[in-house]
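Researcher: Quick test of sequence recovery. Tokens follow.
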């Protein structure tokens, strides 16, 4: 039987039918809103469960209250197993790390700001993982009631970083422990790098070898010249015997291999040498070398398995004869698949194979190639960049295969790309400079120049880079003088000495730090310079960087400027008058006006601006706007776009909102309208802003949003409150319809009483809602009359006393003269029913004890309603009487949140107060109603 059938019955009371009709319409609206909320929840749950990263919600006690499917992959537990489990019991926390996790968890819920952290953990297969945790809070009433943790696995990144460090250390060890001398040097005969074996052969210490001229270590100086010439012509020399001199003057013979290489744009020699002085013991040495080779081969295999890079060997047909474990892991091939005939060329992408064949042919022809970049192809078709280092495997001086090391360049490529972008970004920065900017090395060669510098000189950048600055771009008459001053500057001579040197060598033709440069057309431009030394990481001077402004035209117009000074002064006077007039206009405006120069200093402020900021005008003018009048938390975020605007990188935002800081420390929210200020040439010299204080508007909007949220909660809770009595009514109506002829008179009366009770409940709810509307409209009427309080309370409490028996009591005073107040009995009854109903709902049935008492004085009557129920937490005592506020308890749902609010408003209309006291949750509560007593 539905509600329509109930309404059609004659034996259903008319007032019940009216309530049901009204509520049926309201319920339809509530159902639609509930369905929309349910669909939104379903969309959120779908996104939550499909997220690739683990997402976990943890309660203040450390227990998991929700998680997505990805959490199971990390822990090996099902979602059902994880829910309710303490995070320390999931099996992924290392036992040694548990105390630090518990401390961090306590600090976060103690008020420490959430931050992203890295942790080490263990997965279901006992594998160590490194995780990055992104933490965020869920708050209610400014208290954290849950933490959302998004877990991102960064194990691969950490492993790569550690492997690179280990690899670099191993390469250094191999370099230092090599049995042959290895070194690099430049064309001038200066040793740059060398290993321990090189020092042992030459008899020098490391510091000594860096200072000597390598040309002096050759027994015949012509050998060095021939070697340099051959290297420049052919790029390398192979197995050349050379006689050398040690530090003590003794002679020794070496077998030299050298190759011309390029590092950082500079050409160097990479040289390996072997001492073959004891030629007569060649056979003995050969046998030793053979024995060492076998030992070295064994050590090579052992070392190869320890290295984090791919190590391999092939025969002449490029079939892989050996590969370490890393090769199988990174390539995706098994050892058996490689043994069945996988070739080294098959492990390269097709585009690289022909180039690899050409390089292999060159190696078999005797050339040393060094490292070569390729792209390695895994078995599954994916690829990654590598650097391959190979050498020939010789047997009786004949090549029989290749031995190689493959370094994964993925991370290095990323770093190189980042470096390239950073270099391009730096170049962009200097290119937007308004003057010339360039850098010189210690020889005075140009290594960097900006766009403006190229334009002033009249050359393109390629024509300038690498040229000697003094030989190419300085007029001949002052060339040697400036070269001498440059050398004094990079050797850090005192400033007074450099100034004296400038006066001596350049004369009085130009001021200090001012000199001409020579353009491509042969004309001269006068530049004023600022210079700074450039140092490497060790603090050694490597050159200078200079910036200059072209003042050629400036010098020419100085005279014209002096001649127009009088006219300019007149113009300034006129402008000052116009400015004063404009200031008066701005001072009567209802919004604040602020003008800033290019440095962010305040150049204008109107009266309204001074009032909002709380300063006098003289305290504001000249001050930096960002540093003095903006909250610290947003200063840098506002400074950056200001600078970008002045550089012309972005357009001005005509409208935006941000807070300002008053003199007393208060923040005010301002809505700005902006425009740029340009000079006659169109250059930006500042900007002007007008601002309206919208602080109160923002606060009102926030209050409106909060009330809207409460309204939505009220609708939901009201729906819940309506559904319960309607369910009871509908159920009993169905029962009456189906079993009417079998129900006796007493049972029928009992059923009607239940229906009447639920109808009364619906009436109270609709009455409360109606009264809320009347309150908001100012239409709630209070009809006061003289009221005997004792008699009034007894009449209201009598039904409860009968219903609750010994669980309910009334303690009052019966005076000889009646205790009277001036009140509306219907409204006062509504208040008492609300409070007593709440007390009944908030107390357990088996232990319920509710006491209503009263006391009076000459001024007031106080009515107390006490219970031993759920109690009220201290933080909720301040909000319990607010509209639509509900507080869940252990015994019942929270209600609609309007009963206590309405009760408070009714008591206020009587000139009284209503308060709540409670020792805390679980310790009961007492509501006190105070109403002024009527006096004669």
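Model:
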């Amino acid at each position: 039987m539905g509600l329509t059938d109930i309404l059609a019955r004659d034996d259903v009371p008319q007032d019940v039918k009216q309530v049901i009709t009204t509520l049926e319409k309201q319920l339809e609206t509530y159902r639609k809103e509930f369905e929309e909320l349910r669909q939104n929840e379903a969309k959120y749950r779908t996104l939550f469960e499909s997220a690739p990263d683990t997402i976990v919600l943890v309660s203040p006690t450390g227990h998991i209250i929700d998680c997505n499917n990805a959490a199971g992959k990390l822990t090996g537990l099902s979602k059902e197993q994880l829910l309710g489990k303490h995070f320390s019991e999931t099996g992924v926390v290392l036992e040694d790390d548990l105390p630090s996790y518990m401390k961090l968890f306590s600090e976060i819920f103690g008020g420490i700001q959430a931050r992203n952290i890295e942790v080490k953990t263990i997965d279901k297969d006992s594998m160590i993982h490194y995780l990055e945790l992104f933490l965020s809070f869920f708050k209610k009433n400014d208290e954290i009631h849950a933490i959302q943790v998004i877990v991102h696995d960064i194990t691969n990144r950490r492993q790569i970083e550690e492997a690179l460090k280990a690899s670099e250390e191993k390469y250094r060890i191999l370099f230092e422990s090599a049995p042959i001398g290895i070194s690099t040097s430049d064309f001038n005969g200066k040793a740059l790098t060398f290993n321990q074996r090189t020092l042992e052969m030459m008899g020098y210490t490391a510091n000594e070898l860096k200072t000597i001229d390598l040309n002096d270590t050759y027994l015949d100086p012509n050998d060095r010249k021939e070697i340099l010439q051959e290297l420049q012509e052919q790029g390398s020399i192979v197995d050349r015997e050379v006689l050398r001199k040690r530090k003590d003057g003794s002679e020794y013979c070496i077998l030299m291999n050298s190759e011309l290489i390029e590092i950082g744009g500079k050409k160097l020699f990479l040289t390996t040498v072997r001492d073959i002085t004891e030629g007569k013991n060649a056979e003995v040495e050969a046998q030793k070398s053979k024995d060492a080779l076998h030992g070295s081969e064994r050590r090579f295999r052992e070392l190869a398995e320890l290295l984090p890079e791919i190590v391999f060997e092939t025969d002449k047909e490029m079939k892989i004869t050996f590969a370490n474990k890393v090769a199988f892991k990174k390539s995706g091939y098994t050892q058996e698949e490689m043994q069945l005939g996988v070739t080294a060329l098959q492990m390269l992408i097709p585009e690289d194979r022909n180039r690899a064949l050409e390089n292999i042919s060159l190696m078999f022809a005797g050339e040393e190639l060094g490292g070569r970049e390729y792209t390695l192809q895994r078995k599954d078709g994916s690829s990654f960049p590598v650097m391959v280092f190979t050498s020939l495997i010789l047997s009786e001086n004949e090549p029989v295969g290749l031995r190689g090391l493959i370094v994964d360049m993925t991370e290095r490529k990323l770093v190189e790309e980042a470096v390239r972008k950073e270099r391009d970004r730096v170049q962009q920065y200097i290119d937007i400079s308004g003057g010339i900017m360039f850098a010189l090395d210690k020889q005075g060669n140009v290594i960097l120049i900006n766009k403006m510098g190229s334009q002033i000189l009249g050359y393109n950048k390629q024509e300038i880079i690498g040229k000697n600055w003094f030989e190419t771009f300085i007029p001949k008459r002052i060339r040697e003088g400036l070269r001498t001053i440059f050398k004094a500057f990079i050797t850090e001579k005192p400033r007074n000495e450099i100034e004296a040197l400038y006066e001596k060598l350049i004369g009085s033709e130009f001021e200090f730090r001012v000199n001409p440069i020579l353009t491509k057309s042969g004309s001269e431009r006068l530049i004023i310079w600022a210079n700074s030394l450039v140092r490497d990481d060790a603090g050694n001077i490597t050159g200078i960087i200079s910036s200059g402004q072209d003042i050629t035209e400036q010098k020419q117009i100085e005279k014209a400027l002096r001649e127009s000074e009088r006219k300019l002064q007149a113009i300034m006077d006129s402008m000052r008058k116009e400015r004063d007039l404009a200031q008066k206009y701005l001072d009567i405006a209802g919004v604040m006006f602020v003008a800033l120069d290019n440095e962010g200093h305040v150049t204008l402020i109107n009266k309204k601006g001074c009032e909002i900021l709380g300063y006098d005008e003289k305290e504001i003018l000249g001050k930096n706007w960002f540093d003095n009048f903006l909250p610290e938390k947003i200063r840098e975020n506002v400074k950056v776009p200001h600078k970008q605007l002045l550089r012309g990188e972005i357009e001005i935002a005509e409208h935006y909102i941000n807070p300002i800081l008053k003199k007393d420390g208060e923040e005010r929210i301002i809505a700005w309208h902006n425009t740029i200020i340009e000079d006659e040439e169109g250059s930006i010299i500042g900007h002007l802003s007008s601002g309206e204080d919208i602080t109160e508007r923002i606060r009102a909007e926030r209050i409106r949003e909060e009330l809207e949220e409460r309204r939505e909660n009220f609708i939901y809770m009201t729906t819940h409150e309506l559904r319960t009595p309607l369910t009871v009514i509908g159920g009993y109506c169905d029962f009456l319809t189906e079993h009417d002829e079998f129900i006796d008179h007493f049972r029928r009366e009992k059923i009607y009483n239940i229906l009447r009770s639920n109808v009364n409940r619906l009436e109270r709810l609709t009455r409360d809602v109606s009264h809320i509307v009347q309150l908001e409209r100012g239409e709630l009427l209070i009809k006061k009359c003289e009221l005997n309080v004792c008699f009034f309370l007894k009449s209201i409490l009598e039904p409860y006393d009968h219903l609750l028996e010994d669980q309910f009591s009334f303690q009052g005073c019966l005076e000889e003269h009646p205790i009277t107040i001036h009140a509306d009995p219907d409204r006062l009854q509504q208040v008492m029913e609300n409070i007593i109903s709440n007390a009944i709902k908030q107390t357990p049935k088996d232990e319920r004890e509710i006491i209503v008492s009263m006391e009076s004085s000459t001024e007031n009557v106080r009515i107390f309603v006490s219970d031993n129920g759920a109690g009220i937490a201290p933080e909720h005592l301040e909000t319990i009487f607010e509209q639509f506020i509900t507080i869940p308890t252990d015994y019942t749902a929270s209600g609609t949140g309007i009963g206590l609010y309405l009760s408070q408003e009714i008591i206020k209309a009587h000139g009284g107060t209503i308060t709540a006291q409670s020792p805390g949750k679980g310790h009961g509560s007492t509501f006190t109603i105070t109403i002024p007593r009527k006096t004669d």
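The radius of gyration is 45 Å.
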